[in-house]
UniProtKB/TrEMBL annotation:
Source organism per UniProt: Stieleria magnilauensis
Record keywords, A-Z: Membrane, Transmembrane, Transmembrane helix
Residues annotated as transmembrane: 33-55, 67-86, 118-137, 143-164, 176-196, 251-270, 341-362, 368-392, 413-440, 446-469, 490-510, 522-547
Annotated protein name in UniProt: ABC-2 family transporter protein
UniProt key word Oxidoreductase: no
Keyword Thylakoid: no
Amino acid sequence: MSSPHKHLIWLTLRRSLFRLQRAANRMRSPRRIVASAIAVIFLCAYVLNGFLILAARRTADPESLRLWLSGGMVLYLIYHAVRCVWTDKQVDMEYTAAENLWLGGAPLKRSTVAAYKVNTVFFSALLKTFFLVVALAPDVRHAGLLATGVFAALVLLETVRMIWQRFVSGLSRRHLVGARIALSAIALATIIQFFGQLAAITPAGSLPGVYVLNSFRAIGQIASCDAVQWLAIGWRPAALLATTVDITTHTAVQMLASVMLVPFAILALVRVDGWARRSTLAREQARLRAGDFHSPASSRANPTGTHCDETLADRIEAILPRRMGESVALVWRQALSIRRYYGTILFSFLVPTLLCLSPLLTGRVGNQWAFVVAGIALSTMLLAPPALRLDFRRDLKRMLLLRSLPLRPIHAVLGQLTLPILITVGFQWTTLGIAAAVAGPGWPQIIGWGGMLSALAVFTFATENALFLAYPHHENAQGFGMVVRANVMFLGKATLIAAAVGALLVWVSICKSIFSDPLSVPVYVFGAVAGTWLMAVSAILVTAWCWNRFDISADLPPE
């Protein structure tokens, strides 16, 4: 073994030990003791739930589980592929700044660096395997084979995701447009098939809740169809291994195939990476020979629009009060940067809009409106924050610059959160307007739910940013903390939605018992909207307090 490879192995081991020690120290830190306690409670509750509740449920059919495991990987890959081709900014295998510095200039082959990058996903794949094994253990006979198959499938999925990302970065503009059209057509066909399967398995006139429950069956049938299973041929050995009923000689073949597909995928990643680098270099040289010295992103931008943008920003700042005008620069900065992500944002909100409006097709006028509103609320809390990271979560590496701006904490928070909140509110009111035109719920319902959903958007983004400022993390961070964080956030949002529904039901009963019929509706609407906006304003103030206490020397997480 050559000396650079020995040093790389030594660096990898030392980094892993250092990260484990750092994680233990951070868990014991007084600044993060609350997060550590929540993580421990969540893990204990999850494992206990796996032993007591999941073990008592009816077991799934091994064949259906096998189709779910293999086809589900392909469905996720289709989603990632569509998102990747519509993203203008392609990063080099998602290397951190430290990895670009130390590995990019090291005397290492590109294949070694690519294998090193795949090795970094092993720990996150182990954590995901643990959670899946706890959930699926009652459905299989051999938990060890289940863990091996799921781990191999997850590592293969991450490697194929990197292959596709590098392949897209090497495409020319003309071929990229063709890839966008083809993959968008595939995604559209998948969505049409989903609604077709949902309509086929659900009796006409059923409650929208039945459609929601049957949507999981519809996704399972899509994952089980022949087209998806042919695409999932690389994950079939791992799925067969995970759902093994009786150990035979075929089990050893399945295990060997599951494990060996990972190094073959790494070799494919190396080849595609080399082609992408050569293709990118050839395009750069062709542009230089043609006299084009601008980057593709800057050439697509409007070179004459900067002065007009600055003039319009100055006019808006002059109209607003002096204190509020201090936030305009941050809002305008977000608006200029959103030009690169408009395609991804439109795609991220198109699917939720269709799903939220799908209850209108059930033919039951009585509760269509309620399920549309519930869908908008779920999309606001679960889907909007990941799609609109145009706030403090995107600016972790620019915290020193943001802290140096002469802005009060509340103005900095308003400047960072205004644009994502306005986009989310636009999605809410567009969907509500279409649903109201079909269902005709009446103006009290439209005003009441519209006002509460707008407050929910403010509360959601303020809470997300407050938690981020209290416990920051990098964009592409992985590991134990991120897995637990994602699950705890999901459970916390579900609990919050349930509590909000309960509070609204209590408020309805109070209004009906105290006020007469003509007054109960306006009092209910005004009280509900006022209460939700009070919570939203409180969340904004909490976010401002978190930004005020943010300590760059202690709170910035290492890469």
